[in-house]
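so my prof wants the structure for this chain in the tokens format not the other one, which i didnt know existed until like an hour ago. anyway here's the sequence
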Amino acid sequence: MKYREVARKLTTLGCQELPRKGSGSHRKWHNPATQRATVIPDWGRRDLKLGTVRAVVRQLGIEWSGFQSV
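here's what i got, hopefully its the right format
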């Protein structure tokens, strides 16, 4: 799954990408419903590993089944 797909799903679930303060390949996301935040690597065309995506979803306080269904 690419970063764009993950970002689209997170936005649909109500999460917000925080503005970047510098350069780098990671982007910070915040879930206002749970007040949790995490970083997601943005590798462009490369796929993110499934374990990384699952960890991001867990850290934001979202159920995996809810993430998959979006």
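also thought this was worth mentioning. The chain has a mean pLDDT of 95.
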